[in-house]
Write a structure and sequence with these properties.
Helix content of chain B: 25-40%
InterPro entries (chain B): F-box-like_dom_sf, F-box_BR-signaling, F-box_dom, KIB1-4_b-propeller
Number of domains of chain A: 1
Strand content of chain B: 15-25%
Protein name (chain B): F-box domain-containing protein
Organism (chain B): Dipteronia sinensis
Oligomer: heterodimer
Largest sheet of chain A: 3 strands, mixed
Structural class of chain B: alpha+beta
Largest sheet of chain B: 4 strands, antiparallel
CATH superfamily of chain A: Potassium Channel Kv1.1, Chain A
Number of strands of chain A: 3
Mean pLDDT of chain A: 81
Strand order of the largest sheet of chain B: 4-5-6-7
Subunit structure (chain A): Part of a SCF (SKP1-cullin-F-box) protein ligase complex.
CATH architecture of chain A: 2-Layer Sandwich
Mean pLDDT of chain B: 66
Radius of gyration of chain A: 21 Å
Low-confidence stretches of chain A: 1-16
Largest interface: A-B, 54 and 49 residues
Helix content of chain A: 55-70%
CATH topology of chain A: Potassium Channel Kv1.1, Chain A
Organism (chain A): Dipteronia sinensis
Amino acid sequence: MSTAATADASSSGDTTEGSVRLLTLQSEDGEVFEVKETIATQSVTIKGMVDDDCATSTIPVCNVTGRTLAMVIEWWNKHEIGAVSNEKELKEWESQFDTIDDKSDRDDVYDLLMAANYLNIPTLLDCCTSAVAEAIKGKSTDEMREFFDIKSDFDEKEEDALRKENQWAFEN
Amino acid sequence: MLQVTKQMRIAIIGIGRIRIFHQSTKFSSKDFSKKKRANRSAKLKQCQLDARIEQQWLSPAIGINWDQINGDVLEEIVKRINLYENFVTCSCVCTPWRSAATKENFNNRFRSNQMPWLMLSPEEGNIDHLRSFYSLSRGKSNQIVLKEASDHKCFSSKGWLLTINKKLNISLLDPFSRFHIELPHMNTFGDWVDDNEPLRKCAMFINKCFFIWDSIEIGLCFNGYSRRIRKISLF
């Protein structure tokens, strides 16, 4: 593998790109992405696979769609050391993920949360969980249930007790 | 290598389109439009992707269950909540959220950025033991059933209420959990003098009440006596 990569590098004259190993990731819906190993190892899960030499064939990324995986790869690209020189620029770019304005943003963040959790990407997980915490801010319990499409699973007695005890939390 | 970049670009264009479709301009598309090529296979792939995205958009969020979210992820979310009132609203949503919103996961309770609630005086003829608190962050008042505080004068420190009734029984009360700690009676203090206006006296008297962790004692600072701190053993 390494000799082939070196040969390829010498023929193309591109030493930086050519010497980097590529990993093949396959999303749940069958979309295939080839990603530089140095980038993909931002995921602790994938890093573990690489360290254990389990990343030689296609890596299936279960429960993550191609659309979400593309977003994750975009995240990795931006967070690669040296990709963005300016810290401020990176924060500005990240700011698109850290607010949830509507339900489509909410669904994107959910997908990213699941992917970040499965692939164990601390930076992305931190960003998405902060976004959800920010979205919760100022919402009453009923508003939260409506926004996140959550049905209360408390039984009638518990629900009544909760409403009575924390009446203010349910008021808009 | 070329094939890889092309594939990546298609995927990223897909995201750009979605954002536009949702009328959000967050995703910068200026680089993408430059790089668009009239490549036939790329177009075909794009069409397939668009169809899939449209299908995803039309079908209501399959597989997205915020109530089934992983417990560890929920805990991470809860740990990032700054305001105690949001923490309480979270805990009332459903059982998984309630189990994540434990006191241990609320790290920010005593942070300085926590906006205090202002406790309002009780309304006349209030039989439900409701007390109103004005939330500065929400700009409205919230009511809490606080039976323990009715007919008591209340003072506060670090989220606790120090309550004193007409019989001069003192206790510490957490208004959210309603957990309360009975403190020794006022007349057990050494320099206790009976007075015609005892309530007024004690309101002037105790300036600050605090826990002394290592000795399981409570310290009471008295107004006007700068060096006087009385320690009362809890057990």
